[in-house]
Amino acid sequence: MKPVTCRLLGVVLEESSPEELQAHQATVRSSVLEVLLEITKFCDLYLMERVLDEESELIAQDAQPKFPNSLLQLVFKKKMASFEYFDQLLFDRNCSSIKVKQENDFGKGVYADGDFEEGELILKDPILVGMQHSSNKFDCLVCSFCFRFIGSIELQIGRKLYFQSIGVSANGGCDGETFSAVSKDCYDAGLSHMEEDSHLRTHENLENCASSSSSKDNIPVPKEVVDSLMNGGLVLPYSTEFPLPSAISCPGGCKEAFYCSKSCAEADWKLSHSLLCTGERSKSLSREALSKFIQHANGTNDIFLLAAKAICFTISRYRKLKEDYLKEQEKCPSANALDCSDLSLLLEAWKPISFGHKGRWWDCIALPDDVDLSDEASFRMEIRELANMSLQLLKAAIFDKELFSLEIYGHIIGMFELNNLDLVVASPVEDYFLYIDDLPELKKKEAEIITRPILDALGDDYSVCCEGTAFFPLQSCMNHSCCPNAKAFKREKDIDGQATIIALRPIGKGEEVTISYIDEDLTYEERQASLVDYGFECKCSKCLEEQP
Ligand SMILES: [Zn+2]
Ligand SMILES: [Zn+2]
Ligand SMILES: [Zn+2]
């Protein structure tokens, strides 16, 4: 076989066959098509490469302006054997009674491999990449890796009251710059005693940051109370019944990420935070550039932060695989020299994220109600440009190579937009106040002398959940049904960000496990309309029955 020199083009995430490629995306000569078809017989993935060797036959033509030369282009073979990956995931999660299978044309699904009773736990699915919404950070202090509440009941309440007192809350709109300044100050404030000047500084920053918080109806507590809640001076009655792990600072020194444990801090550092940390031990190329990227994301769409995490996750995995590979090479130099090129390592690193792919963000995002149908094209151009701006900022901050194109960035953002990825963790503050409320009359009266004014100061939204977006690799394989047999449901003991799937009725071996992506009590028309965002028309038994 004749050796050829190749350069990589970019990643095509669609599961395209060579024939489809020929029809839609690339001009491929018939001889190339034959080669590709031959390759697909023997491997799960194949590559579209641009050949630099002029004489070679294997040329994917230049007429692909949407793929800049520097990108890596990987074409996933149709129905690629991804199932080994899922088997491994299920094994890691100690979950032997379900399987991920491809049963029909609608893609993969999760199937029971044993019987489940009503109410039984089907799966706990740890987060692959996830984040707390920026605005939610004012309400909840959680571990940046597992999303458990941390600190103490007093600290959770004190922070919330502090933000209310300076006029920021989850509902208050802030621009990115203010947000960064505030969040930095507040984390400082939350963990150590507050300095007077930090108060002043924050006040200045917030002057133009209007708050629509419900706090206007609340009865504020004196500043000293807020301070002593945050610095541990005031201990609330019975709060020891609700112990929280103490907050551990980021090893990179950023004062933005906090953890419930050393192991969470280390795991996050290894997986992505080392590249996204703005602290002095950050592994990013430029902390200044990184701050600009974060500011842009906080001011526009915080989903960019999650996309950046997914990219850093892939880069970190790639570097680790490469390190392992080089070690292996030293031990026995000739082994695996062929299948462990940089590219196959990158492919391997990219695998977990690639399974979540649905479509490009700017193509698939639902048109907002206030955008006229005739302006759709320009709306999509605009958000594409927004993503481009974000990517340029991110590139300046972390990339040493041009590994990721706008196309890929768009696909990653799209994946978070289109999957059913809500991250919710209930607040222990709610449990705390319910506990006080349930105390015997005398004890309750005594406790309420202290807790009542605090509850009044917090107001109606006294216990906001931790809310965010996350990618759960196995939950995302579960298909939708309007009469599902399972649902994502957190039990009392489920106190972190993992997805918990519970059987809603008995499920027999071999049956598909389904969840509802929407409110299944809506009417047929409303349900179909809600599902448009997910890009399919539901044909579950309920829909078939109710179909007009
Ligand atoms: Zn944690
Ligand atoms: Zn950090
Ligand atoms: Zn349906």
Q: What percent of residues are in strands?
A: 5-15%
Give the cofactors and ligands.
Answer: zinc ion
How confident overall, as mean pLDDT?
Answer: 76
Radius of gyration, in Å, reads: 26 Å
Gap between N and C termini:
60 Å
Uncertain runs are 1-16, 42-81, 171-215, 336-340
Query: What's the quaternary structure here?
Result: single chain
Q: How are the strands of the largest sheet arranged? A: 5-6-16-13
Main sheet specs? 4 strands, mixed
Shape: globular
Q: How many domain units?
A: 3
Given the structure, what is the number of helices? 18
Helix fraction by DSSP (H/I, runs of at least 4): 40-55%
Secondary structure: number of strands? 16
Structural class, from helix and strand content? Answer: alpha+beta
Pfam families: HAD_Pex22 (PF22978), SET (PF00856), zf-MYND (PF01753)
GO molecular function, one term: zinc ion binding
Keywords: Metal-binding, Zinc, Zinc-finger
Organism: Acer yangbiense
